[in-house]
Design brief:
The protein is of the alpha/beta class. It has helices spanning about 40-50, 65-70, 100-115; strands at about 1-15, 20-25, 25-30, 55, 60-65, 70-75, 120-125, 130-145.
């Protein structure tokens, strides 16, 4: 499972011109799921996310987590995070899990994250053509792959 985490001042998801979710200060998470992912990957990434110290303290040092700041989280499914660009110019998405595997894992990820955050997380709509807007704060953008823990 892969996450692209962006610290944001605000973020929103629109589908067909309609805003379906939005947050203020917090994190936008783009989540890519592959067939080898499981509950262990979800637990690892959710714990890492809510405890990641990427928010400024009183001295302007990134020393606070989203839990400490009370920030929001917006989660968007992003199968293209598993794109392979080794051959040719057209990315291959063979590593990305099919919907029968990825939808339950995505839903479990959102549920687990919400439990750890102690409040609901905002989400996109799985499989939809979404327009995601954000104001990246910093910019701070972090990539985490649950298969690379060492």
């Amino acid at each position: 499972m892969r996450l692209l985490i962006q610290r944001v001042r605000e973020a929103a998801v629109h589908i067909d011109g309609q805003k379906i979710s939005s947050i203020g200060e917090g994190m936008l998470l783009l989540v890519g799921i592959e067939e080898a992912d499981n509950e262990e990957d979800i637990g690892f990434l959710c714990k890492k996310t809510v405890n990641l110290r990427i928010f400024d303290d009183g001295k302007g040092v990134m020393n606070r987590s989203v839990l400490e700041t009370g920030g929001d989280i917006l989660v968007v499914s992003q199968f293209t995070l598993h794109a392979s660009t080794k051959k040719g110019n057209r990315p291959s998405y063979l590593r990305a899990a099919k919907p029968d595997i990825s939808i339950p894992l995505y839903e479990q990820f959102c549920s687990t994250l919400s439990e750890m955050l102690l409040k609901p997380v905002a989400t996109g709509k799985f499989g939809a053509d979404m327009q995601v807007s954000l104001v990246n704060d910093g910019p701070v953008t972090i990539w985490i792959d649950s298969k690379n823990r060492e």
